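User: Let's play a game. I give you a shape written as tokens, and you guess the letters that built it. Ready? Here's round one.
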């Protein structure tokens, strides 16, 4: 090939070489972009699912202890209703795992009169794992020993309603971002810095690591996320006393499509929710937590 022809093909050769070099980076960027959901899902908190050797006895405990609750049933599950959310119970043959090695720590109700409520619970035979305790902020709390080894908190609030699920995380601020970004939780926090933050030293009362911490909300229910308190990897909560938490979505197929596109792991494909015709699916959230999605039209 003479020099004239070489000069003619040189730009084309350079273009092809540049394309070959850049195409992997373009593909990666497209993959990152495609993992971004167009809009967050619209979700509501639906239930906490518990494993229990004697669900009826457990239900009796919750309905006697919290006057905002009532015994009910949902999709064939024995249940407790508190406002618009539920505790659902799986009957199991062996004592569920009570070790705090999953991301789920406890759940709880509010109290508008903590000192008198605490004394009332004591008089009614409720046993407390942690007695009435005051935080530096002045907030009072206590942890009940509930059936099957569940830990239930009561804390100062302006309502007696079911209020929160308390979680552990390797990176609480990152976990909060995940719930907001992918599941439509709300947060009052405004942050422009990275979510990976070193843990603070344990603090009193109780020698708990309390920072960094984050709170996100699904309607009236808060997920309060604290740093992990012990070494070791988190395990999934299946077979623990608190088996999983659940949110409702309007379209399970659309929700799973969006979450898959974002890279969220689907643990169980759509199945019938209990004995109903309602569809549900299970996904994995931060720190190996299992989250059930219930289709509620």
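Assistant: Ready! My guess for every position:
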């Amino acid at each position: 090939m003479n020099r004239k022809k070489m000069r003619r093909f040189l730009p084309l050769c350079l273009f092809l070489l540049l394309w070959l070099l850049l195409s992997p980076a373009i593909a990666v960027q497209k993959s990152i972009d495609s993992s971004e959901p167009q809009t967050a899902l619209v979700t509501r908190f639906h239930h906490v699912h518990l494993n229990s050797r004697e669900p009826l006895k457990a239900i009796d405990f919750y309905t006697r202890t919290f006057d905002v609750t009532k015994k009910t049933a949902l999709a064939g599950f024995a249940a407790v209703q508190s406002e618009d959310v539920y505790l659902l119970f799986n009957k199991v043959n062996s004592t569920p795992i009570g070790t705090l090695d999953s991301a789920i720590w406890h759940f709880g109700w509010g109290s508008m009169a903590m000192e008198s409520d605490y004394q009332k619970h004591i008089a009614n035979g409720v046993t407390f794992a942690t007695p009435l305790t005051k935080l530096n902020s002045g907030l009072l709390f206590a942890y009940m020993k509930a059936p099957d080894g569940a830990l239930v908190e009561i804390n100062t609030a302006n309502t007696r309603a079911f209020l929160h699920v308390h979680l552990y995380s390797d990176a609480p601020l990152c976990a909060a971002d995940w719930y907001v970004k992918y599941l439509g939780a709300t947060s009052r926090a405004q942050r422009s810095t990275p979510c990976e933050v070193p843990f603070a030293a344990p603090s009193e009362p109780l020698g708990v690591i309390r920072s960094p911490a984050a709170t996100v909300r699904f309607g009236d229910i808060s997920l309060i996320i604290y740093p992990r308190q012990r070494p070791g990897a988190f395990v999934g909560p299946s077979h623990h006393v608190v088996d999983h938490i659940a949110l409702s979505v309007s379209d399970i197929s659309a929700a799973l499509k969006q979450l898959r596109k974002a890279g969220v792991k689907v643990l169980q494909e759509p199945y019938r929710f209990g004995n109903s015709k309602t569809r549900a699916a299970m996904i994995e959230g931060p720190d190996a937590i299992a989250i059930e999605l219930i289709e509620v039209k």
